[in-house]
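Checklist before submission:
- one chain only
- standard amino acids only
- sequence pasted in full

Submission:
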Amino acid sequence: MKIFVCIKQVPGVSEVRIDPQTNSLVREGIPSVTNPFDKNAIELALTIKEEQNAEVIAISMGPPQAKEVLREALAMGVDRAFLLSDKAFAGADTLATSYTLALAIKRILKGSKDKTNYLVIVGAQAIDGDTGQVGPELAEELNIPQITYVQKFELKEKIILVERIFREEEIVIIETRVPALISVLKEINTPRNPPMSGIVKAYKKEIKVLNAEELKPDKRKIGRHGSMTEVWKIFVPERKGEQIILEGTNEEKVQELCRNLKNDKIL
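Returned file contents:
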């Protein structure tokens, strides 16, 4: 069985800068990290690998420096890693990204005896874009079932049984078969820290770079040309007002809080 984990490199700071000309994040000089939700996806894949005979493959799309998040995945225990990197992929929205990721997965599966015995795991969302769209769109591109917002997971042979958060206090139990895609929440597990031996081995492993020529995409579906959405403006909202520290007994603080909320027309 093959388990594909799609991971993303995101800015490793809470305060981001935005280029007013391109309406995109300024990444130069800003440290990058693995998207936190994707670490949970990696951890789940490795747990399945330890319980069953599975190969874990990490895939990321981005510039050459995105190799670092793949290197971290290898250090955690991932078997192989692929970076989708080409200027033709630049400016992709979630639709163009999912199309490109799907091409890579299909290419890797060509060498498999059983091309249906696989699972795709993604984080529920990325902390920079925060759309949660790539997972579902990728499932559509692969034409496989999808289950989002998974907080508990079980795999027996080729049957998947999960708990999915449906509403704030409502959980549904869903069963399906592989191949399938799931997006996971942070509650599903606690990601492991890479051991020193894993870090050493990770730098000895090859990270295969796939460009547009190797993936042979429809050029109308990748990068900016394949993006159906366009960002007109992006900005950091200005913080208005000052903080108020309430003093007194609990009852007095509650009364003061309610008065402030009413004055602000929140209540």
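Reviewer check: The chain is about 30% helix and 25% strand.
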